[in-house]
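ok so I'm stuck.
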Amino acid sequence: LTFPLLSVTLLVSFGSSMLYGYNLAVVNSPAVHIKAFYNTTWARRYGHGLAPGPLTLFYSLTVSIFALGGLVGSLLVGLLVVRYGRNGVLSRSALLILLAGGFMGFSRELGSPEMVIIGRSITGLHSGRCCLGCRAVHGPFLMARSPAHSQGAGEDFIFPMATGSANLRGFLGLMPSIFICLGVFFAQVLGLPELLGEDRFWPLFLSVVVVPACLQLLLLHCFPESPRYLLIERNDVCGATKALRQFLGTPDVQDVIEEMKEEQQSLSSVEMVSVWQLLRDRSVRWQTLSVVVVNAGMQLSGIDAIWFYTTIIFENAGIPVSQIPYTTVGTGAIEVVMGLIGCFTIEKLGRRPLIITGFCTMGICSAGITVSLLLQTALPWMRYVVVACVVGIIAGFCMGPAGIPFLMTAELFTQSHRPAAYIVGGSLNWLCNFTVGFIFPFLQMSAGAFCYLVFCGICLLVALYVYLVVPETKNKTFMEISHIFA
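replied:
not stuck anymore, here's the structure
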């Protein structure tokens, strides 16, 4: 592992994946302050404040518009990468974050709630283009295509390392998912009352994203363009050779160049399938259905409700308001630890056991929240059971559902079907993310403690589907997987 490769891995993850995690959790702790700003601004404009329903609608839109921006960004990234390259897309996406930070940072000074919503949508556009669009959601950027694993991971990433041991590829691949967890954790830490959790600081809290974006924008030009992009898409052998020598720290890169040339030839002979053709192809109907079920289930499992509305969940559970920020930080720390454990165990235990166990754990803990909320009046200590169940949902998610759906998407399809499958899976992820972020407050108001049973049912049904339909894909070729589905 060379220093330039490690550096660019950390830089890409810091300015992309970590921002995605940060923006997931940043609206959680300042929710009360943002709502108060909306209410005050509305009263100043129209002479009366917002009723609870419209106020909740405004705030839900602020939370969930991030996902709609992500959907648009993920659909555009393919065209942008071909035109500007991986390095170019990252640089231009960093400029979007600066614009978003300006909108959110000056929103209160200008008395404009619309600027907060626009800023959130732009941060989502950045995440879709820069973090998720290159592999749908939560996928690793820095992996390579290896002949031994050609039916699995490895196309269209930012700075691929074209060769190396499986352990090194795994190390580079887990970096983004770890940084997503760190982004969530940093948002929770900065949201503490001692830091940026007070009312006067919430615009600054939302606009902190400009710091990593500026660092990435300044340092990204110190590194060359992706060797894979230069050779396969631009046919620039000299540029790819020079970039590989810098990344790998050795002048002898001819074997790597030859490997990428072979990949270029194989890709040129493959006719890509459109989304419509994928959906109509009966030979992969079970694989397509599995991608739909698992990717939709990942977001409808309730994890987005946990990230977006942790403070509200703990308030309803009876946790003292003064303790909620620190309890939230504790759950974030556990998420980082479980993310590390999940990344290191996925290749040892296989996909099926981890994803089934993860969804089952999340379903049981969601039901546990409902039971705890119903019993908390008679048993005050049940509030701590709610905290334990939230931790269980996070642990279950990091155990498998956080990353396995995208790995499975790559392993269930050949190269001709894989891009369309990623579009289907990624679009479902963003749409379901938006759905949960938007409707959860209303679901909570209408169903009360029973709203978590919806997530419980979804998690258990997805686990049952995986158990009955989806085979273990670890160390299996596409043909072997196709025969199992057939």
